[in-house]
Every structure is written in structure tokens, then in C-alpha cells.
Design goal:
Blueprint: E1 8-12, E2 19-24, E3 27-33, H1 45-58, H2 75-85, E4 93-94, H3 95-101, H4 108-116, E5 129-130, H5 145-154
Length: 161
């Protein structure tokens, strides 16, 4: 786990384990699920907002996360994350859909790599990306596939194992 430079950290309990949210200059730069051994430090209004919105998301009171983020990555990764960020609660796309949307239909495997490198899961809802025919092909957040299954069920998204 490569945590970017940050000046504040907040945590919250969730059904997918402890969520740690890292911020720098009042923007979320990293989020991890199933976090262990994370100590909160610093203050940031974006973290207060993120904790509240994520708590509401997990309890079913919120479907849209409106949290300021700053992510760094390659141009390819940024294009993939931008496409994923356009998926709303309960919506899905396949890796092939995303590859086509960014103008590189043969880059399905590379899209998978970019999805797995998403530094702010939940905010950029990479759990909404499925393999062909609605299959779960993997998940790098929290406890992996069980975490993705919980998130998909929470959003009433049908999938195949």
C-alpha cells in the first residue's frame, strides 16, 4: 500500500472493516478499507465531510459521495478513474466498456490494472466495474472479493461469481 504524502487521517468503522481516509491540503488523497494500525492525526474539514458521507453511504442514507479528491497517476490511469467516477450508485460498466470509452478498446487488461490502483475506492467507485457478463474478476480493496460482494449487494447490483 503506497500511501501518498498527507497531513491528516481520519477513520470510521464500516461493514467492510475500518476505513482510513488520508487528506492533504483539504483534499482526500487516499482511502483504504480494512485498515489496521492507522492512527488518526491532523485536522481537515474534508475528512469531517468524508467521514459523515461515508457513514451515511454505509447506512443506506446516501447514494452520492461529494468529496474533494486529488489523485495522481499516469494519464491512462486518470482517464480510467474519470470514467469510473461517472458511474453512479447501482450502475456498472465492464473493463471493456471503460477501455472503449477512453478510446483504447484493446487495453482491457491495462484498465484492470488502473482499476486496481485506484487510490480512493468508494469515492471513485471501482467496485462498480465488472468483468464480461457481470462477473467479479477481483478486487484490491479491503478483504478483496468479499468486500466487493458486500458493496455490490449494498447497491443492489447483480453479479456473477
Amino acid at each position: 500500500m503506497n500511501i501518498p504524502e498527507h497531513d491528516a487521517v481520519a477513520t470510521l468503522p464500516s461493514p467492510v472493516g475500518k476505513v482510513a481516509i488520508y487528506a492533504r491540503d483539504n483534499k482526500v488523497v487516499f482511502l483504504s478499507m480494512g485498515a489496521k494500525g492507522v492512527r488518526e492525526h491532523g485536522k481537515s474539514s474534508v475528512l469531517t465531510k468524508a467521514v459523515k458521507q461515508l457513514g451515511d453511504y454505509f447506512s443506506g442514507k446516501r447514494k452520492v459521495l461529494d468529496i474533494e479528491v486529488e489523485v495522481t497517476g499516469t494519464d491512462f490511469q486518470l482517464a480510467v478513474w474519470d470514467q469510473i467516477s461517472q458511474l453512479g450508485f447501482g450502475e456498472t460498466a465492464t473493463y471493456a466498456d471503460i477501455a472503449t470509452a477512453i478510446g483504447n478498446p484493446n487495453a482491457v487488461r491495462a484498465v484492470g490494472g488502473a482499476v486496481g490502483a485506484n487510490p480512493v475506492p468508494l469515492v471513485i467507485g471501482c467496485h462498480r466495474v465488472l468483468g464480461a457478463n457481470g462477473r467479479i474478476t477481483g478486487y484490491s480493496g479491503g478483504d478483496g472479493i468479499p468486500t466487493k460482494q458486500w458493496l455490490l449487494k449494498h447497491e443492489r447490483i447483480e453479479y456473477k461469481d
